[in-house]
Design brief:
Length: 411
């Protein structure tokens, strides 16, 4: 169904962070586009691991970009070729020994400029990038390179206390380098419903820690789905062999649930339920009356015109539009409308942050799945202030900047 600017008052619904058989996903790019359309998304950003693309699936970047362009033509929504890039680091002071995953919203301009090394065997295609501090192949190098091409560096699943390791201690703490979060432009929220209890407070602390009215330092939000269509335990080349994929899926759908029940693990969420949960995450960008094109989507993301939902929350409208560049004038009035927040009636809250501090908390009744909320700040302090709205754990807005309509004299 073509994008309708009137359906959500100018907000387009997108699926960000999707893996295909170009790296470690099971779908073709075309199938990824079909899945996005089937689930009601207006755009899709494919973010295959560029390291895998070069070293394991042995595809070219042009094949990848062409596949996204072909899918755009076939499915009728923008399918944008982005990329996920990993940098390892060791920090004895914080006992951080992990890797940071940074997303590029689009690699088209980087490919055209020949920024990736697709010639040197056995090396990361971005490992030769240098940063302004003399480092090579660093997180900062990735971030600075993306900024040079007007692409906001996204810190992906900055917290992920994974239990997917096969050996004791393996991947027990898998997260973004916390010292580099300040140089990111976007934060990934609601990484997975399976780890809500672990990450919800960490996400809120990020809102509080990085709330600022400085347009160069503000952090917008996006909702990662990190969709692979099944677990990541299948070797990527085998994922291209259709009979093996069919057998593997049958085992996962039919045998694994029985094994889990025999173990007494009735709460586990094997494929496909976990994959379906990932598709309940959405990133909304404000396009207004513009058509939903690749350029319009990327421009909105760059400007921080975003809100995110998860858990099949149904977004209808948020006003005013968040933005890095637009400064609203007081009085402050913010409204959000979710026709469905929780799929089952349960207590919930709407929380308003001003400059990272909670200034309003409002509980909602247990009997209604919908949520409509308006907040008015009649007397904000003088100066510029940043507001964000959060509905745990279903909705979060990017920053909205307000300034005095009539600046008052400080006393």
């Amino acid at each position: 169904m073509p994008y309708d600017s009137k359906q959500r008052h100018g907000w387009a619904r997108g699926l960000v962070h999707f893996h295909t058989h170009f790296s470690d996903g099971w779908a073709s790019v075309l199938r990824a586009g079909e899945i996005a359309v089937q689930h009601g998304f207006d755009f899709l950003i494919v973010t295959d691991h560029l390291r895998n693309l070069k070293l394991f699936t042995h595809k070219t970047l042009q094949e990848y970009v062409d596949a996204c362009d072909a899918a755009t033509q076939r499915v009728g929504i923008p399918v944008i070729p982005g990329g996920e890039m990993e940098i390892h680091w060791n920090d004895p002071a914080t006992t951080d020994f992990s890797e940071a995953h940074t997303l590029a919203l689009s690699i088209r301009s980087l490919v055209a400029a020949g920024e990736f090394d697709w010639v040197t065997p056995g090396t990361d295609p971005f490992g030769h990038w240098c940063d302004s501090q003399g480092g090579v192949g660093t997180i900062l190098a990735l971030q600075e390179k993306l900024r040079r091409y007007d692409l906001p560096p996204m810190a992906s699943h900055q917290f992920q206390h994974s239990v997917m390791g096969l050996k004791p201690g393996e991947h027990s703490d898998f997260r973004y380098d916390l010292t580099r979060l300040a140089t990111s432009r976007y934060f990934d929220f609601f990484y997975s419903g399976t780890v809500d209890l672990i990450h919800e407070m960490e996400d809120i602390l990020l809102v509080a820690r990085y709330a600022t009215a400085d347009q160069e330092e503000m952090k917008a939000v996006y909702a990662s789905c990190d969709f692979h269509i099944g677990p990541q335990t299948m070797w990527p080349p085998l994922a291209n062999v259709k009979p093996l994929v069919a057998i593997w899926r049958w085992l996962l759908e039919n045998v694994v649930p029985i094994m889990l029940k025999l173990k007494g693990d009735v709460e586990a969420a094997p494929y496909p339920r976990f994959a379906d949960e990932q598709l309940s995450h959405a990133t909304y960008v404000h396009l207004g009356e513009q058509p939903c094109t690749k350029d319009a989507v990327l421009a909105a993301l760059r400007d921080g015109r975003t809100c995110v939902t998860r858990g099949h929350a149904e977004f209808a409208n948020f006003d005013p539009m968040p933005s890095f560049s637009v400064v609203r004038r007081t009085p402050v009035q913010i409204s959000v409308r979710l026709p469905v927040s929780y799929s089952e009636p349960r207590p919930r809250s709407a929380i308003v942050f001003r400059d990272g501090r909670i200034v309003h908390w409002e509980p909602y009744a247990i009997i209604e799945p919908s949520l409509e909320f308006t907040y008015v700040d009649l007397q904000p302090p003088p100066g510029l202030h940043v507001y964000q709205v959060y509905v745990p754990s279903k909705f979060l807005s990017s920053p909205i900047v307000f300034a005095d309509q009539h600046p008052r004299q400080r006393t």
